[in-house]
Write a structure and sequence with these properties.
Length: 166
């Protein structure tokens, strides 16, 4: 079974959130959608973001296919814009990885998934995490956004970087 949450017509930005695993449940997916829209607003983002929540097997397959890296990852970002402009973004985010990380850090899986969405969108908005300094700036921006919408910082210093597959 899958759960789907689509943004109402006319919302800007627009968010399409699809739980391909069927494991999130209605309340967590509604929370995730609402908070992802708030985060997009806090970023001043416009356009469309499509998010597909997948499990390890689908993520590992996509990670290999699109990045040439075997194994699962937390988020894969596909910026479909040509030459900038409003977002036209597809994100794959991994429920299993989020579940593992959330368990280690003691918070709900939807909070971890929200971090992955913010991380992927930040990549599309020009942020990068290829070196220590840029990674620190990107994670600080993630925390700023999540704090500004009342979620609080999710990224924890000392953990492997979110968006390893970006």
């Amino acid at each position: 079974m899958t759960t789907r949450a689509d943004a109402p017509a006319g919302d800007n930005p627009e968010l399409d959130l699809f739980d391909a695993t069927g494991r999130l449940g209605r309340a967590p997916i509604v929370w995730l959608r609402e908070h992802a829209l708030l985060a997009l607003g806090a970023l001043g983002a416009t356009g469309e973001v499509r998010v597909r929540v997948v499990g390890d097997a689908e993520m590992a397959s996509a990670h290999e296919r699109y990045s040439g890296v075997s194994g699962t990852t937390d988020v894969l970002t596909f910026d479909l814009r040509e030459g900038g402009g409003p977002l036209d973004t597809d994100l794959l985010i991994c429920f299993d990885e989020a579940s593992r990380r959330a368990g280690e850090l003691g918070h709900a899986v939807e909070r971890e998934l929200l971090l992955y969405i913010v991380h992927g969108v930040l990549h599309c908005l020009g942020h990068d995490d290829t070196d220590e300094a840029s990674s620190a700036r990107m994670h600080a921006e993630e925390d700023r956004v999540l704090e500004s919408i009342g979620v609080g910082a999710v990224y924890q210093t000392g953990r492997s970087k979110a968006g390893g597959g970006s």
